[in-house]
Amino acid sequence: MIEVQNISAGYSKNLTIFENVSFSLTEGKILGIIGKNGCGKSTFLKSLLGLTPYRDGKVSLFGKDISNYSAEQISKLGLIGYLPQRERIFPNLSVYENLLIPCFGKKNLNRTDVDHVFDKEIFNDLFAFKKTSASYLSGGQSLLLALACLIIFDPPIFVLDEPSDGLDYHKKDKLVELLQYLRGLNKGIIMVEQNVNILQELNADILHVEGVQS
């Protein structure tokens, strides 16, 4: 699915964020990225999506070299769904309008696909807020809304930045169940996650990113 070979990134030649990171992700696998705060975990995810340039190395997506692709080109491939750490939803739209957005980015999606997302227990609570402005949602509810949009979009690869942040204990359990369900569908998942217990429950492979300054 994804193969990363020795990529490095930094704000300048004299300030390296991470260096020589490599991994491969195959179908039905979960890769958990851990490291200290500020070590470049989120930047690493963004580099896979073309949002942050990297200096060296190579990234391949389903056997195709995308090292020189822009973020727009990678997005148009429709192969990766991204859950950022911030700015995950459109607050000026209703909850249901947010859920409809994936229908504009992928053919053969319709309202039936959107409505099916409420069948998953982790998203049950969102149903009561269908007509509510997304700006009124709590942090945990906003995260679930963004995650529901990804489920509707249904990419083969999910890239998640702190998906458990803001969730209560019960919702974290449901998140684990959802990710296990996605793995059962042979989805590949790359996730930054500080809660090591969640990664252990998922039996995830671990990639430790260490920040480097030079």
Q: Mind explaining what this structure looks like?
A:
The chain is an alpha/beta fold. The protein has a domain at 89-154. Helices cover 32% and strands 25% of the residues. The strands form 2 sheets. A 5-stranded parallel sheet has the order 6-7-8-3-9, with helices on both faces. Strands 2-1-4-5 form a 4-stranded antiparallel sheet, covered by helices on one side. A hairpin with a 2-residue loop joins strand 1 (2-12) and strand 2. The longest helix is centred in the last third of the chain and has 16 residues, at 169-184. The two termini are 32 Å apart. 34% of the residues are buried. The mean pLDDT is 86.
What characteristics describe this protein?
214 residues, alpha/beta, four-stranded antiparallel β-sheet, 7 helices, 9 strands
The sequence of SSEs as H and E is EEEHEEHEHHHEHEHE
Oligomer: single chain
Radius of gyration: 17 Å
The structure class reads alpha/beta
Please give the order of strands in the largest beta sheet: 6-7-8-3-9
